[in-house]
Amino acid sequence: MGDGARRHIGADERRARLALRHRLAPSARAEAPEEVADALVALHGSDPSTVYLAVGARLADASMTVAETDRALYEDRGLVRMHGMRHTVFVFPTALTAVVHASTGLTVAARERAKLLKDMAAAGAPDAAWLKDVEESALAALARRGQATASELARDEPRLKEQFAYAAGKRYEGVHTVSSRLLRVLGVEGKVVRGRPLGSWTSSQFRWAVAPPHPELDASEAQAELLRRWLGACGPATEADLKWWTGWTVTAVRRALAAIRAEAVTLDGGGTGYVAEGDAGPPTASVREPWAALLPALDPTAMGWQERDWYLAPELRGALFDRSGNVGPTVWWDGRVVGGWAQRPDGEIVWRLLDREGVGREAEAAVAAEADRLRGWVGTTRVTPRFRTPLEKELSA
Known about the structure:
Layout lengths: L10 H11 L11 H8 L2 E2 L3 H9 L8 H11 L3 E5 L5 E5 L3 H26 L5 H18 L1 E2 L1 H7 L6 E4 L7 E4 H11 L3 E6 L8 E5 L8 H16 L4 H8 L3 H10 L3 E4 L5 E4 L16 E4 L21 H4 L9 E4 L2 E8 L5 E5 L7 H18 L11 H7 L1
Helix pairs in contact: 5-8, 5-9, 9-11
């Protein structure tokens, strides 16, 4: 992981890499959603609107955001919405699904299935053989339908509607249907993925579809490949960043770093970061102009690192994050978060600068232009983040 004197990569260079590799500088914008997802490795998908807003911020022609993202997700299937790192829903390039499944999904899947069986047994529900039979029947029905909601599948397989008590005697006790728990398990097992939503691109109600076929990969090799891809997009990153983003153990992170011969570099403040092999040199391209961006809640750039001081002043976190650590909509200027934005009920895009260091009239004009660009393609659609943050709630009121 690097021999001899280590190269130093400071905050300014990290911001320059971010501008180009995350397709945020106007000169680096992408032509299609697939290019955006490939550049970022993964788009946060737990809030459906985040996928479209993240793509729109990075497309050269933002007016094509909804139509092109729908095409990529539901027609060409070049992008797939599925469970990934930290048991979170993401949108991945389809070619990467096998890597994600083997590197992060298998461990979570085994745990989720065991938990479902334990909960069912505690409630006196049928056993594993019964559940396996229901699963096979449901998957066959889904294959026949192409895409379906849980209720539609339950018409073909009525046992999906059966209920069992959960956490009896505890304050969070409740009743679960077999369909809600089983489909979630099948999702983390890589057997089903989210299909088209029932409503618009902001809807959180999805149909289900059988997952596209993919090879079964060795877990260690898949972890190495995922880390190589992510460092290419986000390096340098610390061990803490890598452990947080992947959800792996420190041992797994270090094993993958060694497998890809990652190179160690020094960071501002004396920390150690890692880049992919051969990527420690200065950028081969440079950012030709300062840039502004309005990124959505849970954007993969804002959420890409656990250690964020090089692009986000610590004093801004209280306004821009919720209590669980989810970032809200952010305003960026030349590689730093400088404020936040929101959409009012009348559709107006409003923003506020919180950090004015180095932010003058040029920056304000550029941010205003990005707000106009966003307003132009969002149109009459109203976007409310799933996780509300203090500044977003204040601005949208």
